[in-house]
Queue: 2 jobs
Job 1
Amino acid sequence: MSILARVRPEILALEAYHPATWKPGLVRLHANENPWRPEGDGSAGGLNRYPEPQSADLARALAGLYGVDPACVLPTRGSDEGIDLLVRAFCAAGRDRVLISTPTFPMYGFAARVQGAGVVAVALTEPDFTLDVEGLCAAIDETVKLVFVCAPNNPTGGHPGRQRILQLAERIGERALVVVDEAYIEFCTTPSLANDAVGLGNLAVLRTLSKAYGLAGARCGAVIASPALIDLLRRLLPPYAITTQTIESVTACLQGEGIQRTAGQVEQLLTSRHTLAEALAGLGAITRVWPSEANFLLVHSHRSSDLLRLALDAGLLVRDVGTQPGLAGCLRVTVGLEEDNARLLAAWSQA
Ligand SMILES: *Cc1c(COP(=O)(O)O)cnc(C)c1O
């Protein structure tokens, strides 16, 4: 049996949509486009033309970045789209469910609810928010199709551990797909599971250019999985999902210097994370700062609403995550420029 047996049968039976033929050297009289470029169009491909359907250049660039074969990579509009695609492929409305470990990134539950799928939540084990492998395995039944593991976890900041995730995948077997969201893996000492996802049929990895790579506005991420699963997910995407600007800017950014610049920025943010964590822990109003393997810090305060207001008065936004299960009084702070971190510390030292 393969994990594809857990995909919705109507999706397995779906016939692929065939977009207009992609032959860049030939004159396009087959796609009903306007023959003139718009004013100020700086793109190479021309914004009057449809982009290459599911761009091979982009898939190759991302495959190179993540060290996997292009057949194992599906470029998406951010990893948010990867989450949505997986939920739509696997979960039938009113019947199937996703399994999440709370507190976590709210998009997993959101995508499930949009699809009309159910959400089963198993709490991360306090005080360190450890992944509860036993609890997750016990929660698996015929209706659970996807198990989302956020590694490092947003908003708690810790990585569940490679071995724990692989153990979870092994115990679940082909009953459900384990989806490891590695949005912050570049800030973390644990290596990516991308290569494991390519080899193991029941594991998929989500990556994004929005965080460490500084391309949140380009909307580009990737699903990494076995070629069979990637092929199936590709059929669900609209043919021209990714814009010409994104294809061109991302492939340019991922060549040579862009990668080096990112590595330097990650180094800088890790140093700032360390300094900021120590300084926050020293503030009277803050009761706890969790260790982080991401570019943010989770803090607890008995006066979190005062801290929110002080930050806002200083022109700074931090995220109130206090309504999430187990996170009453908690705030999430993104590590920013040194001067902005210093402004936050100055504002909060008045509390
Ligand atoms: C930010 C974030 C994402 C979303 O990334 P996009 O690629 O911008 O859609 C996905 N997962 C987690 C855990 C995140 O924090």
Note: The chain has twelve helices and eleven strands.
Job 2
Amino acid sequence: MQIPATREECEALDRADPLRDRRDQFALPDGVIYLDGHSLGPPTIKTLERVRDASMKEWAQGLIRSWNDAGWIDLPLTVGAKLARLIGAKPEEVVVTDNVSVNLFKLASAAAKLGEIGLIITEENEFPSDQYIAQGIGNWARVRAGEGPQAAAETRGVLIKSIVNYRTAQTVDVAEHERTVQRGGGVIVWDLCHSIGVLDHDLAAAGAKIAVGCTYKFLNGGPGAPAFVYVRNDVAAKVQSPISGWFGHAAPFSFEADYQPRANAARFASGTPGILSLSALAGALEVFEGVDLAELSKKAQALGDLCLSRAHQLGLTSISPSRAEERGGHISLIHSEGYAIVQALIARGVIADFRAPDAMRFGFSPLYVRHVDVWDAMDQLGDILTTEAWDQPEFHRRAAVT
Ligand SMILES: *Cc1c(COP(=O)(O)O)cnc(C)c1O
């Protein structure tokens, strides 16, 4: 597709955008261009209503009766079933539970029993928490860092692997990785944190067996929204969760002394779920209803192309793939003063983020970011660079969260 060369061309593309009506469903503040949906998605109006109902009606009025009457007890699975469409899974293959880090621990440990040797493998550019979890498991199992699919194939190991890299946005060919690793009897635990809600996933077609993912990034589930676990039905029967709590038990309210796992992915639930967060996520997923996932990823690619072309005009380099098909939903631009530049952008209402040591990340959530937003953000970035507006003491001060 042609990359727009003027703001007017951006406006024309936005008018013709099949997803344009979705933006109105978000509760975005005025005067802000939000390019940080890869870190924390904004709420929709429905999400805020669900949080209010869940607290004011279901909790305050319904009290404990809401576990049954409001369907709280089933939420991890009903929300999981909604999510399943976004990744090409069957409804019962997804459960919403815990956070990504805990789920990686559960799944990598469980998968180690599928490959007989039980070695856990991480690549060197993998998201830090994924590497830390592997290092933790390394206290009682064998772990190898800095290796990839080949090692998993040769050792019948468990590879933890992101579909979209958090720094570069580089995607991987899931089907090809599965073929390589499965040929040797290894297993991949896929991490969909930076790809769900922006890529058109078909895990079943790609032969993926196990995955985790985040719901507070492109799915807009809210700060600390619970993560999800995908386990293919035939695989679930062969694995057990090392955190075998009562919510993963076949009959939690029978209060039996012995653990009996539930069927399917639900066995990876652990303890009592956070109902307010789950309710927010249930509301957040409504904006995805009826969305053609191919349109979603196509628009993210187009916005990324626009960002890259304008960044090149500004003389900036990128570590993100220039070929849109090889990218997730964000672009990382490199500058040694990236932190201060991002702070200067935020002060002007353009919210992006920074990943040490030098990557400025711009996320293009296709449901609410428009072409004109990217255009205007790049105008601001250009102005900040030429005027050196970033070189102010307040923009150099590092906050705890970048
Ligand atoms: C955001 C992210 C996580 C987050 O893990 P939490 O335990 O939910 O905080 C993990 N892995 C990747 C690749 C991520 O992008």
Note: The first strand starts at residue 33 and ends at 34.
